[in-house]
Amino acid sequence: MSLTRRNLLASALPQLMLAKKTSVEKPHILFIAADDLNNNLGCFGHPIVKSPNIDRIASMGTRFENAYCQFPLCGPSRTSLLSGLRPDSTRILANEIAIRDKRPDAITLPQLFRQNGYKSYRYGKMYHMNVPAGVGSNAFDDAESWDVAISPPGLEQKTPGTRYPINTNRGPGWVSIAFPNDKHEQADDRAADLAIEAFEKSPDKPIFVGLGLVRPHVPNVAPARFYDLYPIETIKAVVNPPGDRDDIPKASEIAVNTRANDMGMDENGRREAIRSYYASISYMDWQVGRVLGALDRLKILDKTAIVFWGDHGYHLGEHHRWHKRSLFEESARAPLIVSAPGYKGRGKPCRSLVEFVDIYPTVAGVAGLKPPSMIEGQSLQPLLDNPARRFKSAAFTQMFVPEQKIEGRAIRTDRYRYIRWTGPYPDEELYDRKTDPKEYTNLAKKPGYEAELKQMREILDRGWQAARAKV
Ligand SMILES: [Ca+2]
């Protein structure tokens, strides 16, 4: 009898303790954005990029292997994910437009937290900020989102150091600089310091901290020790098959803003550009690590929900592109990692299709907040518990070129990527990712794919509502 009771106690006790330990009703929110970051991170399987701190967030939470931004450009993507509204609803289809200009009625994610007793902080780039020219400026920010908002300045392309030849004349931002020490002269340094100070001042009362890092956006400025992680002889340039661009629609090439011919870089320049992008990723990751270290030191890591995202992907030579603004996988897909106290899918990948509009209801949900009915995403909380669960049947990404009124709309299903271009150069693209994961062969230009095209057109026409997850 007593033995049974002891066994019962012994088996129940750890579970009770676990339940108590992990049920944080009102967690701190650490909401980290990186700029122009694609999925070239260790935790997403990159063979050489070193990102130990972001990998640590992934080990505590769920990394979304198939997360898609709604618009592959800073301003439209950020206003969409921060408002929970798709670009068709924000009507922000270009940079340099503030959310209130188009949607004064929006309740942004940090604003929702403010309405529910949280103090919200923004350090660095959350909404659109031109980099490098606008670093330090508050233009296009949203006053209603933050109690405290600081855009630290930085030396950016004026940083003294070794300049590597990336061999391009694309403007002052396109430089690669290794500086000799860790002197605090970059915007991200100060932004991370301020985030740390915010947690130090409020360890017990939960706060929402938006940390907006501007790397790995060009200029690729980083301490030399991060360049040293990537000896140039280990860097391989992308090799595209001959004629790859022959079946890419004209609208698609215009949308990437003429940066589709390797930006004039020779192979050495391309390798240097890749290397400096990787060095910038590791430098940005180091800033993330400084903030995680503060959460460790303050003993609040297990009371903090951490969301890490890049605003859209980025081409490093695929299809000869060095840019975003593309509806190919490398530009539409972006990193998303969510770690929140109390969920079971810790350290696991989630391969289900998710969209950046889903970030809003997820972050609100892990803090027990109810999002406004206008938002257009779905909470990923079921996937934080069970990453193997199926979610959406398609993810939607769109693009717009105001000058020529070119509109592109892409869907990603489990198997295919389908893109429709309308405007002066109407066209279609279809890629079978099962047989062509690099999206080199546009099947819309080949006979024999009528059934697949019909199906994809229907999914695009039915829209995101029909692709929603059944939860
Ligand atoms: Ca091609």
Overview of this structure, please?
By secondary structure, the chain is an alpha/beta fold. It has a single domain (26-385), classed as Alkaline Phosphatase, subunit A (3-Layer(aba) Sandwich). The protein has 14 helices and 17 strands. It has helices at residues 2-22, 52-60, 74-83, 87-90, 99-102, 109-115, 187-201, 224-227, 250-255, 267-297, 329-332, 359-366, 381-385, 450-462, and strands spanning 28-34, 62-64, 67-68, 119-124, 148-150, 162-163, 176-179, 207-212, 220-223, 304-310, 336-339, 348-350, 354-355, 395-401, 406-412, 416-422, 427-432. The strands form four sheets. Strands 5-4-8-1-10-11-2-12 form an eight-stranded mixed beta sheet, with helices on both faces. A hairpin with a 4-residue loop joins strand 14 (395-401) and strand 15 (406-412). Helix 7 (187-201) runs parallel beside helix 10. The longest helix has 31 residues, at 267-297. The chain starts with a helix and ends in a 9-residue tail after the last helix. Residues 244, 247-248, 440, 442 line the site of calcium ion.
List keywords for this structure.
471 residues; alpha/beta; Alkaline Phosphatase, subunit A; 4-stranded antiparallel sheet; 14 helices; disordered N terminus; binds calcium ion
Bound chemical compounds: calcium ion
CATH topology: Alkaline Phosphatase, subunit A
Query: What proportion strand?
Result: 15-25%
Biggest pleated-sheet summary: 8 strands, mixed
Count of individual domains: 1
